[in-house]
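Internal ticket - ligand job 393, iron/sulfur cluster:
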Amino acid sequence: MTTETETKHMKYGGSKMELFEACPGARKAIDSLEVRPAAGPAAERGTRIHGYVEDILKRRRVPRNLNEEEAIAVKVCDKIAEICEQYGYDTLDLRVEEQVLLNHLHPEAGGTADYAAFKVFRDLLLIDLKTGKRYVAAEDNIQLMFYTIGVLQSLSLFERAQLRQCHLAIIQPEQEEPYHCHVRVWTVDMPTVVKFEERIRGIISRAEKEPDNRIPGDHCEGKYCDARRTCLAYQKYLNAQTGGAIECALQGSEMPKVTAHGLELAKQYSVLKKLKDWIKCVENETLQALESGHRVPGYELQERRGNRQWASDAQIKKVLRELGLKPSQYEIKKLITPAQAEALLKKNDIKLPEDWATFADSPYIGKKVATVKESGEDFAQLFAAKVEAPPVA
Ligand code: SF4
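stdout (structure tokens):
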């Protein structure tokens, strides 16, 4: 599996290569954290699915009464078998979840390659399983290349010299039934592998030479830098992007008026998602501090409660009946939603009728801001045309 969690003993893992390339100081910043953020539910789900796939591939047995994640794992294994067949391998040829080392680049560089197979005089196949929602491309994927280089290092010089090309595949199941697995393959020749090896060498070497060089940007959040919740460079970056709003909020002074327009307004709008992420980080940090008994002046932990629910449906029905209500008054039947109906029909292998779209409509509930693709030089001009300048006071 190829996330930072399982390469925790490695200083340089494949999943953070892009981040370290954008910010050489990130390695030291993450290492300096007293507490690393806990893995979220999506990462935990991913770890479990990887575990199920590993189990099936190694034991060659499919469990009965599959839970949802095991069902996904079975689909993934079927797809892995298809990919293997396509490239002339058997799933028995696969090395499953094997640790690879890139210690020719750094003594602590390495990780775990999900599934890999190779044949002398021919090629190497590396498959990486991605369980998240975010689309992951295979082409130019430096993380895939990192693990490929790791697998190549585990071969003898003779074996490596005979290889002609590498097939680097991403397999990504959908989040909903029937969990269709998408496959993307990037086939590269050996000179391309060498080029990437040099790029990775450069990333590691710069991170070693410039441990305090923090370069903030979209990657702090986009590439999940664990240090972003406490990183001053990132806070300064967000502060500048919002016209000093964060500094004002932290100092308790009046928030600056939003006077930007055109491209400047677009820039500030684009930073909202990052701000929300930062706010979430501060909330989590405060929650964690209070949970571990630390004092946060002015705040305490309280129980959160969901909407009230009946202790027993049968008991309350009896009480309501005795109080004089009729079942038609307290038992409301509700029609399922269009989305639920579609899911139900899909589950029962029933095709939607051709005029399906005419049965439901989305009511107008207001306007929202949506992103549009703008390109090159037209960018500023287009924004200036869409957003009117505020009236001069
Ligand atoms: S938050 Fe951004 S600037 Fe700070 S260490 Fe991480 S990547 Fe670098």
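Auto-summary: Strands lie at 95-101, 110-118, 123-129, 165-173, 181-189. Residues 1-7, 379-393 have pLDDT under 50 and may be disordered.
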